[in-house]
Task: inverse folding
């Protein structure tokens, strides 16, 4: 505790001008820190969407559109199978997997039969329509309208041999992991789905 | 019934999460300060969701929420004021 004991002596010997300059420096630093922390109070969220099944396409889009309604700055970075969500044609034909899903009302041996994924998908699509749940296409259009930045991983676009024209208008292309990380570092909420 | 002076009514009957919140945001954006939006939903989750949205979003406040019956449906009615 010797440093505490020394402090009053230093204060006593410092001139008023020195102290004033010191206070001004501290106030400037505090203002900088406040600005860095506060950021106008606007929250932001980054989601990494990696799955392309019908059930896994919903959570990123529901959270993204809702966060946009809160006025948040939202980025959804789509990579690997998550890219199918942004693909205009494929997004309308996303499938539900019947196999390996314990919530399916059928044993795996039956679920593995040909066309069972189509049967499960049709059942789900019927429920979605009956429940008034938005379609994937509606959620994408809504998210884009609300200013959500839907990003398509450039590496995956090339890996899957997609053409940039095949994605919805308004989707950001030409971005990679570094862009995603940059948003994640600044975001209040980061999710990988 | 609520005695709030309603400027506009938004019908989101039959829609489920996240559409009631998303459409409410759009409707509130079209209002002027002080005006009140009435939102009518059949989604029971909208009671918690719209309250949560209004409480944590700048520039809006939830004045009132009520449950009413209309034929066979339960309606969840929200009164939101733009500040």
Result:
């Amino acid at each position: 505790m010797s440093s505490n004991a020394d402090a009053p002596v230093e204060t006593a010997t410092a001139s008023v001008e020195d102290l004033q300059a010191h206070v001004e420096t501290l106030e400037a630093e505090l203002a900088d820190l406040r600005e860095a922390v506060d950021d106008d109070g606007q929250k932001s969220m980054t989601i990494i969407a990696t799955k392309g099944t019908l059930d896994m396409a919903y959570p990123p889009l529901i959270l993204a559109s809702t966060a946009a309604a809160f006025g948040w700055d939202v980025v959804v970075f789509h990579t690997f199978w998550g890219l199918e969500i942004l693909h205009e044609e494929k997004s309308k034909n996303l499938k539900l997997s019947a196999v390996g899903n314990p919530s399916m009302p059928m044993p795996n041996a039956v679920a593995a039969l040909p066309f069972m994924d189509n049967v499960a998908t049709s059942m789900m699509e019927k429920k979605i329509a009956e429940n008034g749940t938005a379609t994937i296409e509606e959620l994408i259009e809504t998210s884009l309208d609300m200013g959500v930045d839907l990003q398509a991983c450039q590496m995956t676009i090339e890996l899957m041999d997609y053409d940039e024209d095949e994605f919805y208008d308004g989707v950001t292309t030409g971005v990679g992991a570094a862009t995603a990380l940059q948003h994640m570092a600044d975001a209040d909420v980061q999710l990988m789905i | 019934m609520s005695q709030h002076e309603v400027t506009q009514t938004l019908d989101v009957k039959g829609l489920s999460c996240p559409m009631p919140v998303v459409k409410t945001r759009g409707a509130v954006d079209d209002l002027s300060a002080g005006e009140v939006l009435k939102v009518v939903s059949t989604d029971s989750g909208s009671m918690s969701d719209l309250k949560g949205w209004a409480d944590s979003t700048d520039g809006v406040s939830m004045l009132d929420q009520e449950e009413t019956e209309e034929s066979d449906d339960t309606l969840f009615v929200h009164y939101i004021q733009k500040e």
In short: Chain B touches chain A through 17 residues (CB under 8 Å). Chain B is about 25% helix and 40% strand. The first helix of chain B runs from residue 19 to 29. Residues 67 and 76 of chain B are 5 Å apart (CA to CA).
